[in-house]
Amino acid sequence: MSGRVRQRDGAVRQFLVCLVAMLVSALPALSASSDCVSDDKVEASTRIAACTRMIEDATEPLENRGIAYFKRGNALTERGDYDRAIADYSAFIGIAPTVASGYYNRGISWVFKGDYDKGIADLDKAISLDPKYGDAYYNRGVAWTFKGEDDRALADYDRAISLDPEDGRNYHNRGLIWSRKGDDDRAIADFDRAIRLNPNDVGSLNGRADALTGRGEEERALADYDKVISLDPKNAHAYYRRGNARLTGGDFDGAIADYNQ
């Protein structure tokens, strides 16, 4: 098979942006609060226990307990416990309904669960509260991609790029959509931008090589596949596609070696 593989799941190579943190200057310098708000500096189970103590402490100000819900939600999401995380973000939203990050983080958890409609609804709300929330546009674009609505995803990546033109993930994901649509020129232009921002972006190097192959530029594609394999020696996609390019160029021994790999 020499035809290009247009992988929909490639758009989530750098799937959801990390959960946002929250300013915690209002918290007292107590050991429990310190462990609760320490993010990834402390193991998740320790953070969950510390936040739980704060939440259950009736003497804690409501604002502090809200932050504890938010931080516990982050730790639960890291552990893949999305149902409990969603419950905590919902509790935080009940305390701070105008803070965009609560909807944003809950939206990410919904998408991880596979409920893209609820994820999009929460990301919609985050954007309505903060229209310049670039990460929310990016992640909503990912959710639209999961739903197969590439045109709506393109619009979100366009908006995210306008807000932060130095974020290569948006170019990468937009390039994948252009590639699926068969527009290799636009795909290559986006992968070029992503690679300029991160020369070792394996996903964009693979994507550009695939698009170059689609234009019949096997030599340029080979250079990209070579670099992918040097960066990621177990990248089966690059070996397979490099094998195809070598086969097209008459390098049968090289193609066989790649297929073996």
SSE topology:
Layout: H1 31-36, H2 44-56, H3 62-78, H4 82-95, H5 100-113, H6 116-129, H7 134-146, H8 150-163, H9 168-180, H10 184-197, H11 202-214, H12 218-231, H13 236-248, H14 252-260
Radius of gyration: 22 Å
Low-confidence stretches: 1-16, 21-31
Which strand-content bin applies to the residues? under 5%
Class based on secondary structure composition and strand pairing: mainly alpha
End-to-end C-alpha gap: 17 Å
The helicity comes to 55-70%
Q: Count up the helices.
A: 14
Order of helices and strands: HHHHHHHHHHHHHH
Describe, in plain words, how this protein is organized in 3D.
The protein contains 14 helices and no strands. By secondary structure, the chain is mainly alpha-helical. Helix 4 (82-95) packs antiparallel against helix 5.
Keywords:
261 residues, mainly alpha
Question: What is shown here, in short?
Answer:
It is built from 14 helices and no strands. With 261 residues, it is an all-alpha fold.
